[in-house]
Amino acid sequence: MTHSLYQDAIDILKTNDRGTYSLPTQGLYPVQFNWDSAFAALGYRFINPVRAWQEVQQLASSQWPDGMIPHIMFRGHHDGYFPGPSIWKTGQFTPTSGITQPPVLASVIRRLDDTHPLDDSIEMHDMLRRLVRWHEWFIVARQEPQTEAIAIIHPWESGRDNMSDWDSGMARVEIADLPPYTRRDLDHVDASQRPTKEQYDRYLTIIKYGRDHQWRQDHLGQHSPFRMVDPGMTAFLLRSSRDLLALLQKHQPDNQAALSTVQQHIESLDRGWKNLWNDKVNAYTCYDPVEQKHINSVSSASFLSCFAGVYEEGRHEKLMGEFDRISNKVKFMVPSFDPDHADFDAKRYWRGPVWHVINDSIGRGFAEHGETERAERIRADSEALITQSKFFEYFDPITGEGLGGKDFTWTASVYLDWVM
Ligand code: 9WN
């Protein structure tokens, strides 16, 4: 641990603090994001545990009447973010986007509860009720029946926006007649590190479809012009469900209804995760529900099986073989996409760069399952990236160059909470 990096991380969390919620970074993302906010709370524990709880409570308070906790909350001065509330038009009291993001919240709450439990049991009760409703929402609005795994209806839901795995699904989205628009992300980051114009046209077309269908989430789950089954979403929901079950057992051991609901979620998601196994590439991969076939490529999400709490003998060893093949190709693990694949791009967002939030989850999962050396490789590489390039949004896995936004909240949080 280097004292100045510790101090830098604390300073970043303070700079991106807006009182009761955090920004991922100033300029590029002037809004509260769902999974960024959950990770931010882990970092705020190092400054002020009360502030950490405020962060997650503010996030959970944005829950829609149908149970969804949205991907973006537009609070404060959010004018610099595109697309803003006038494009989403979700009609919520606090303006939000109309989709969700990876459900890491229950896992974060469990960790907060372990180290700094809430004094107020009514507040904890309210939090658990919201978490059960959100998880149930995923099962109703996003579980794909053939696989029992979780689908996304917009690449932004996955949190891994421009993955090559979404390309075939995105190609099916017929670009609508959109009014002219100005992207604000390119005011801050070089275009070569961001999604393309054509991808943005499709992102906005999918939003238009949701808007035209009044954001009726069960309809969107079945008919959105973009649908893909995502190992990332499935693994995060499965892990969060296990953590939620533990929280319920601790705080509400008599709440049979909630306990059995969450137990059922775990059982079906466990089957869902296993159904994503793809023999062609020896990994858990995306599945295309329209074409009814797996996508044959390995991404960082493939390695979330241990984090999701699934160990399948035989498959695990093959998956570790893939991990080792990739580790021999890059200097810094874990690239978001397979470096041997023709679509790999070391600098373009989720098509190659390393992201600390994914490293954190893969690394923790590996450590829990006795994959000590591989876990340490990920942790040490995550530290080396920050030592070399500081707290960027993502990093080139070959050169270690920092990319995207700088002074990034979740990179600082993950550093304090896991890397250092
Ligand atoms: C769109 C905030 C978010 C992250 C996502 C990341 C990126 C948004 C954007 O930034 O996505 O959701 O505008 O590019 O892909 O994971 O939550 O940090």
Commentary on this structure:
By secondary structure, this protein is mainly α. The chain has one domain: Glycosyltransferase. 48% of the residues lie in helices and 5% in strands. It has 16 helices and ten strands. The protein has helices at residues 3-15, 34-44, 49-60, 85-88, 105-115, 121-142, 155-158, 167-171, 197-212, 217-223, 231-251, 256-275, 315-327, 356-368, 372-389, 409-419; strands spanning 32-33, 72-73, 151-152, 228-229, 277-278, 283-284, 287-288, 293-294, 394-395, 402-403. The strands form five sheets. Strands 1-2 form a two-stranded antiparallel ribbon. β9 (394-395) and β10 (402-403) form a beta hairpin. α6 (121-142) runs antiparallel to α11 (231-251). The mean pLDDT is 97. (2R)-2-(alpha-D-glucopyranosyloxy)-3-hydroxypropanoic acid is lined by residues 24, 29, 33, 35-36, 71, 156, 159, 161, 185.
Brief overview:
This protein has 16 helices and ten strands.
Please supply descriptive tags for the structure shown above.
single chain; 420 residues; mainly alpha; Glycosyltransferase; two-stranded antiparallel ribbon; 16 helices; 10 strands; globular; binds (2R)-2-(alpha-D-glucopyranosyloxy)-3-hydroxypropanoic acid
